Each structure stands twice: as C-alpha cells, then as structure tokens.
Amino acid sequence: MKLVKYLALILVLWGIPSFFSYDEAIGSVFSLLMVCALAFYYFISEKRSFLLPFIILGLLYFLISGLVMVYGDPKYFRNDLIKYFVLIICGAELARDTTKKELFVILTLGASSILVHALFFQGGFGRYSGLYLDPNGAGFVCIMAYCLSFNIKPKYLKNMGQFLVTFAGLLTFSRTFIILWLLVSLIAVVSDRKNSLNFGLGIGALIIILTVGSLLKVDVNRFNALESIFNDNQTTQVSVIKEDSRTDTWARYYDDILDSPIFGNGYRQLSGYDDTTPGVHNSYLMVIGEAGIFPFLVFIGIYLFMLFKNVARYKTEVFKIMFATTLFILLMTTHNYFDNFLLIFVSVWLFIQTTETVSDENEIEDLDSTETELLNKTL
C-alpha cells in the first residue's frame, strides 16, 4: 500500500505527466498512470466522506462552462473533468493519509530538481524550473515546501529543507515567490520571534545567487534587478519587477467577464489555450469568466473559509495560515486551476487539515514520552 501511496504522491506532486507533455503519447501514459494509481489507492484504502465543496465546484464549473462552450476539443474537456473528480474523490483519501512531513519531503525533493536544472541543463532562458517546466509553477512548489517546513523534526531536516527551497525558489526568479517568501517569513515571526533568523537564511541564499549568477547563466534583467538592491551607485533596475504586470493582463478580460457574468463565456475561453491570447492569469477571474457567478462564489468561498478558519491557529499550527494565505494569493497569478493537479491536491490536503481531525505522525513524534503515553491511553 505504501508503494502505491508514494507512487501516486510523486506523480502528482512532481508533475510527472506535465513534464512529459512535450510528447502527447508519453504524457498520456503518465497521466493515465497517475489516475490509475489514485483510483487503486482509493480502492484499497479506508473510505471516508466526500469533500462536498470541491464536488459542487466541479459540477457547477464543468456543467455550465461545458454547455456554454463555443469552441475547443471536447477531448480536453472530458479528460479534465475525469481527472478533476478522480483527484478530489480518490485523491482525498491519499491526502488524508499524507502527513505534513511526507508532503514537505516530497515537495522539497521536487524543488531540488530546480538545482539540477540550473547546474546541468543551462539554457538561454535564465530562469530555472526543474521538473515543473514553468518557473512560476516551480516557485509555487518551493513556497509550499517553505510553509510546511516550520516545526518539522528533526531540526536539521527543517534547516536543510528551508535553505534548499529558498535557494531553488530564487533560481526561478519568480516575483510571486519572493513576495510570498517575505510574507510567510513575517507570519512566522509573528508566531514565534525565533523565526526572524529565517531572514538571515534568505539573505544568505540571495548572496550565493548574486555570487554565482554568471556561472548559472541566470536571467540578466531580473538578476540585475536583484543586484541593484545592494548597489546604491547603480541605476536601479527594480522597475523590471513591474514589467508584464498581472493587473494589465487581467484588464484585457474585464469586458468579457462583464458581458456574461451569470453563465460565463464557456470552457477555456479565458485560459489562453487558443494560442492567440495570454490567458487571464487569475483563477478567480477565470472561473467567473468561463462559468459565471455560481461556481465563482463556491470557489472563492472555499479559499476564504480556509484562510479565516486558520487565522486563530497561527500560534499552534502556523503552517496552516501560511498555506492558506499562499494559496489564496497564488490563485491570483495562475489560470490553469482545473488541470493543475498539484494545486488541486494541496488545496484538498489543506481543506482536510482545516476541517477534519487528522493524525499527523510528525506531530506525534515531537511529543515527549509523558505526552505520548497519555495520548496512547486516551486512544
């Protein structure tokens, strides 16, 4: 059972089907393998309750956007629908059985592929992504692992993991990663002032990037923007960070959204799959723009619920408010939600952590012997 569990986790969390998407035949094989692994794990695991909010979201989105669909290959619609429901039904049982430590380790190992990419597969792009192909998606993996790293035991695993995902995240040169890293670190300091040491870790990783940047052939413009922060004599290039503003991209789609706010414009109409538009780069706008107000209310309700529900837990389970805040903001930067299986899975995992009593082996290991004995007697 553990073999199936870790196979399914690796396929989902390392984005293996997407990594082989350059070849449709190979990508389809790994996509089918992921679905089969999730389904088989569900078959051999304990059956618990369905996650109704995600099921309602999927039903509303696919039903409405499919009926309104103007163009597009029905094959992609069918595939996305099947994989989404497999993930939220079968994947929910996998998420329930996945501890915080397991999720942290697998995401961190996935993030390490960014270092491999930077060291051995350098190219002209200058932004590295490893297994995840897209640097912004790779930055998302790094910030998720960073959120999970707090209170991980043993301490050396936490420290090594935090440095690795911070360094790898900087190699993506993702503006979203940098902003979220700072925000998560501030939340960590509010929870425990000892976490202020993490800013030193971040500065150390940044100095190394600036030192070896030319060897790694990093993106020149973004590298110079980072370098200018430490060089008062140089004309600042921080304006690079403001280029290609997401707000400008969103604005292109406001008219389409306002023209059909009730039932939307149809499946994939705001997702940039016709190769003539960049896509809206905002999951909230994508949902309302493609399927209308009803799935939008469910969608934003799920993430607002997780955000506000976990605010009160910032002292005892700080990773939950970090995770919820990060997810809520990340959804403003991506529009491929319903076929982003990593994003859906970690959302399902956090929803379960927020709403259900889940036994985390990592937390039990951290208890002293007296507490462990008491816990065993209670159980």
Detailed description of the structure:
By secondary structure, the chain is mostly helical. The C terminus is likely disordered. The protein has a domain of 139 residues.
User: Rg, please?
Assistant: 21 Å
Number of strands: 0
Strand content: under 5%
The gross shape turns out to be globular
Biggest beta sheet attributes: none
Question: Which structural class fits the helix and strand makeup?
Answer: mainly alpha
Low-pLDDT runs of 5+ residues are 232-241, 362-379
> Into which percent range does the helicity of residues fall?
55-70%
Key attributes of the depicted protein:
0% strand, disordered C terminus, 379 residues, mainly alpha
Structure at a glance:
With 379 residues, the protein is mostly helical. It is 68% helix and 0% strand. The protein contains 19 helices and no strands.
Write the layout of secondary structure elements.
Elements: H1 2-13, H2 16-19, H3 24-44, H4 52-68, H5 74-96, H6 100-120, H7 135-149, H8 155-171, H9 175-191, H10 197-216, H11 220-228, H12 246-251, H13 254-259, H14 283-291, H15 293-309, H16 318-330, H17 341-355, H18 361-365, H19 369-378
